[in-house]
Specification:
Number of strands: 4
Distance between the termini: 43 Å
Order of helices and strands: HHHHHHHHEEEHHEH
Helix content: 40-55%
Radius of gyration: 19 Å
Largest sheet: 4 strands, mixed
Shape: globular
């Protein structure tokens, strides 16, 4: 993100919105930083469209910057999950700032928010079942498409799903599931393609994460199965996750 926070805050209206958050929560530096860099994030996201498919150092640096910002926001949400009022204010100011952007198309904020909260929700799932989740290095995300580590040996890729879909966890061995199991468990071809691509990424030659026997999970989580302020996963999601992972109550 920009190293000049005042410029990155955007229009005067946006600066006023951020200032109001700053006045109310002066000690929450991470939330303030996230808001100050929000406009720069969307500017960079727009810029990256011209680099689609480009693997140049400039393009990779831009993508890494975008990933770093999303990780910053996700960490802020996780760290402040106990303070609903703070997070409600953060999301309200964020939405108002995004709505000030000249190129806002009405869906930018929704996509951004769901993207962050799917990461947060999956982090909380693994935290609740006594795993030791951690965010990856941005380059692990960039190169191997790892969104989260369930523990030190198990990379996760996360896919948001539309409202009404089912929460699913698949492991890398599930790429070879037969047609009967796909029907029984409601596994779509699209989800299997995502899983196969993830397996290819984490087992590619030179990967530090293992060979074709590497561990890994793909977690597909619908947008109506977690709290849209805190990212807290639903009881049903927790039940399915524990059942799949063999966690005893």
């Amino acid at each position: 993100m920009s190293e000049q926070p005042n410029e990155s805050m955007g229009r005067p209206e946006s600066q006023n919105l951020i200032r109001s958050f700053k006045d109310k929560y002066p000690e929450n530096l991470e939330g303030i930083t996230a808001l100050e860099q929000l406009t720069a994030f969307f500017e960079e996201e727009k810029e990256q469209l011209k680099y689609r498919g480009d693997q140049s150092p400039e393009a990779l640096k831009l993508r890494e910057s975008l990933i770093q910002y999303q990780m910053l926001v996700a960490h802020f949400i996780i760290a402040n999950g106990h303070d609903r009022e703070l997070l409600e204010d953060f999301w309200k100011v964020s939405e108002d700032v995004v709505n000030q952007l000249e190129y806002n198309d009405g869906i930018n904020f929704k996509v951004f928010r769901f993207g962050i909260l799917t990461q947060v929700a999956v982090y909380k799932i693994f935290e609740k079942i006594k795993k030791d989740p951690r965010t990856p290095h941005p380059r692990e995300d960039l190169t191997y498409k790892i969104d989260l580590w369930a523990d030190e040996n198990t990379p996760i890729q996360i896919k948001g799903r539309t409202v009404g879909s089912k929460f699913k966890i698949l492991n890398l061995d599930d790429t070879g599931m037969d047609a009967q199991r796909k029907r029984n468990e409601g596994i779509s071809e699209l989800l299997l393609r995502h899983l196969k691509r993830f397996k290819k990424n984490v087992t590619r030659p030179g990967s530090p994460f293992g060979d074709e026997n590497a561990k890994g999970l793909l977690v597909a989580i619908p947008h109506d199965t977690f709290d849209l302020v805190t990212g807290e996963p639903s009881e049903e999601v927790m039940r399915v996750a524990k059942e799949y992972l063999g966690i005893q109550e």
